[in-house]
Amino acid sequence: MLRVEHLKKHFGNQVVLDDINISVDRGEVLCVIGQSGSGKTVLFRHIIGLMFPDGGRILLDGQVISSPTTKTTDFDRVRKRFGILFQGAALFDSMDVGENLAFPLREHTDLTEREIERLIGESLEMVGLKEQFKAKMPSELSGGMRSRVGLARAIVMKPEIMLYDEPTSALDPIMTDKINKLILSMREKLKMTSIVITHDIGSAYEIADKIAMIREGKIIFNGTPGEIRQSRNPYVQEFIRGERKSHYALDNEEDYASSVDITKLKQRSARPRQAVATQQGKADGSTGNIAEKKFQMPPRPTTRN
Ligand SMILES: Nc1ncnc2c1ncn2[C@@H]1O[C@H](COP(=O)(O)OP(=O)(O)O)[C@@H](O)[C@H]1O
Ligand SMILES: [Mg+2]
């Protein structure tokens, strides 16, 4: 569906992307991993059309989308197929949650206010938030809630591809787990294709169908989560061993275990994907809510609608 071919980019005499080749098929989750400064965000910005390559190209369903000469109207059409979650969610601070979600719909569609309201409700439910959240201002939300609202805003346009730049980097382990489950849930429910940029190998193991590892602008591994464990490349090994722990925000798992049942959380993470999908649609009617209440950190409103 999306293919990056021989992508090259330099800034001054620093080569940042050096012959990048990656691809993702419809309904797949591709994780691009790598250390800080390895070129992940620069790659991300090329994919969403904020930067143009010095060499190589990016194709969406066979159509080149990386040429600066692409007509703006053509590019707008392409961009509407993307849902983007920037690092830190990038919410509009002067708008409440409802207005944040309505923004892309008002900007890009002719939907009636009533339809917009319905879509907002649907998106919030999808990320496990109640309608009452619409009235909250971004400043009132925790980091995890902001990420979820950012995600709700990104999916409100029903994109075919979701692109995430470090969706869990600022989050604690419980929120990380929730965002990961959401990415999988959207894959199951909406057959959504995702490209997730992350330095968190734990998340990559949990959500990726394919992993590409980037180091100093080069792809040094491209394969499945199973294959990366078998990789003989010393840098790959160093990364997957060294970074493993950063999945947890707390250094000491004991501290963390005293507040939540970490064994259970880990078991849940280890469960195969099929089991994750069947957790949805619980008897309490919280269809879009894949986050188990037990692990909910902030108190949530109990009434619906
Ligand atoms: N607009 C820019 N101009 C010059 N250098 C840049 C620019 N954007 C990124 N870089 C450099 O490119 C390298 C890769 O950055 P980046 O893609 O942000 O890394 P990360 O993998 O942490 O996301 C870094 O050395 C960074 O300083
Ligand atoms: Mg980055």
Short structural summary:
This protein is 38% helix and 20% strand. It contains 12 helices and 10 strands.
Structure characterization notes:
The protein is α/β, with parallel strands linked by helices. It has one domain: Rossmann fold, CATH 3.40.50.300. It contains twelve helices and ten strands. The strands form two sheets. The chain has a six-stranded mixed β-sheet, sandwiched between helices. Strands 2-1-4-5 form a four-stranded antiparallel β-sheet, with helices on one face. α3 packs parallel to α5 and α4 packs across α5. It is globular and about 55 Å long. Adenosine-5'-diphosphate binds next to α1.
**What strand order characterises the main sheet?**
6-7-8-3-9-10
Bound small molecules, by name, code or SMILES, are: adenosine-5'-diphosphate, magnesium ion
| Unreliable segments of 5+ consecutive residues | 244-305
Count up the helices.
12
CATH C-level name: Alpha Beta
**Taking Cα atoms only, what radius of gyration do you get, to the nearest Å?**
19 Å
Shape: globular
Number of domains: 1
The portion of residues assigned to helices is 25-40%
User: CATH superfamily, called what?
Assistant: P-loop containing nucleotide triphosphate hydrolases
H/E series? EEEHEEHEHHHEHEHEEHHHHH
Give the number of DSSP strands: 10
Distance between the termini: 38 Å
User: Structural class, judged by helices and strands?
Assistant: alpha/beta
Described by strand count, sense and barrel closure, the largest sheet is:
6 strands, mixed
Mean pLDDT: 79
CATH architecture: 3-Layer(aba) Sandwich
Strand residue percentage: 15-25%
Q: Any idea of the CATH topology?
A: Rossmann fold
